[in-house]
Write a structure and sequence with these properties.
CATH architecture: Sandwich
Shape: elongated
Largest sheet: 4 strands, antiparallel
CATH topology: Immunoglobulin-like
CATH class: Mainly Beta
Radius of gyration: 22 Å
CATH superfamily: YEATS domain
Helix content: 25-40%
Oligomer: single chain
Number of strands: 8
Structural class: alpha+beta
Length: 216
């Protein structure tokens, strides 16, 4: 499969959760109704390149891993405790490895105090494709990406509670995340190049050793 070398595509996404305290309708073990999700930063259809998304919940939930095959990528549950949710993204192109995000599920705004409004926790992140296949590259070029894009929030029932990533501070955070991922990609490239050179060096040493043994 032919790839576009030297190209990195950054697709902005947001992983988040919102939780609602049930009050008198809840129980000790079901005090909150919550939803964890992965959404596009802009109004984009991620299913063009995402095959499915897995949400790995706390081990007390059955089943612990939930697979969602179409947008919206979200899981709704009931519970009483906060924990870290693992979000795994699998792609339509089987040659692309899955990526993981780690989202802290929040039920309270302050220590143990229930909130009358939904508690929303959101984090900006990016799906990065390094040297993507030509077909995937052509598709992803049609999706807005990069650290300076204009924000257009998708339509969600509680979108008025979503974090605004268009402000100066959020824009700086997005640029920082973009730079961090770019640095990590370069580090991975350099590590791969170093390992390749080490393999070549080891091969040359084996050849030299073979010549020496034949000469003796």
């Amino acid at each position: 499969m032919k790839r576009v070398k030297g190209v990195n595509l950054h697709i902005p996404v947001v992983h988040g959760s919102y939780a609602k305290h049930l009050g008198d309708k809840g129980t000790e073990s079901r005090s909150h109704e919550w939803t964890v999700y992965l959404r596009p930063l802009q109004a984009a259809d991620l299913s063009h390149f995402i095959k499915h998304v897995e949400f790995v919940l706390h081990e007390s939930f059955e089943p612990q891993t939930r697979r969602v095959t179409e947008m919206p990528y979200e899981v709704q549950e009931y519970g009483w405790g906060e924990f870290e949710v693992v979000i795994r993204v699998f792609f339509q192109d089987p040659s692309e490895k899955p990526v993981e995000f780690f989202h802290p599920l929040r039920l309270f705004e302050t220590m143990g105090e229930p909130s009358p409004d939904p508690v929303v926790s959101e984090h900006y992140d990016e799906i990065v494709f390094q040297d993507p296949p030509e077909k995937l590259h052509s598709l992803l070029k049609t999706i807005p990406h990069g650290p300076n894009l204009r924000i257009k929030q998708p339509s969600y029932p509680i979108s008025n509670y979503f974090k605004d990533f268009s402000g100066a501070e959020s824009n700086d955070l997005r640029k920082l995340e973009h730079a961090r991922r770019t640095l990590r990609e370069e580090t991975i490239k350099r590590q791969a190049k170093y390992e390749r050179l080490e393999e070549e060096r080891a091969g040359l040493l084996r050849q030299i050793s073979g010549y020496d043994s034949r000469a003796s």
